[in-house]
Amino acid sequence: MRTFLLIIALIGMCAFAFAQATPPITRDFSRKNTFGFSVAYSNDSSPMILGVAENRKLLNFGVSYARRLWQGSFVNWQYSAEATPIALESDPVIHEVITFTSPNNGISTQNFEPVNACKPGSGTYSQTTGGITYSYSYVDTCTRQWTVGEGLSPIGFQWNFFPSRKLQPVVMAHGGYLYTTRPIPDTSAGSFNFTFDFGAGVEFWHSAHHSIRADYRYHHISNAYTASDNPGIDSGLFQITYAFGK
Fold first, then answer.
1. Class of CATH domain 27-90+146-245
2. Which Gene3D superfamilies match (predicted)?
3. Fewest CB within a 10 Å sphere: which of 40, 75, 90, 188?
């Protein structure tokens, strides 16, 4: 009996020592530092909250960094920063061909970016001034022009809910800037614009260090009246992010 009790005591002591030497196992799917690669796309823009420019497209390729600030059993709160080394913005362009029939024959063409959506059309015009009749016809067709830029959103936060689960609801918000090689969304606006976004999505954890996040955001671009005009672009931006870290 004493031998049995001694063996039990030795096993208990060994188990206690092993438990002290082995780090505790956590089921939380959470990282202290997170890095990510992302692609985001919006097929159209429309007046939602602040912007008025229509029919703009966005295609962004980005990288991100997040740092965990606080975590509880319900939510994981992170500082989040995103950089967009390649930002592509597409504006509708009206290509107009004018054919003069009076007093002289001739053809004139011009391209311009409308603030509203581009709509093809045609028509004629005639006016008599000083005994002379001026007449022409026009044909409008729609094309697109892509503009290259880069952006940075150094101010941002992200909240992951239920960090013990592999599938986590996510809410995020960011603020920053976008610089493009030409004024957007038209020539009266600016090349330097401010940006902000907020949205929600889900993050699926493949392992303790790797995950994929899909989210949908309200995304706004405007120059805050630092240019002669400030149409602003409101977009619904869908983003996929591959994230990793420890």
1. mainly beta
2. 2.40.160.20
3. 188
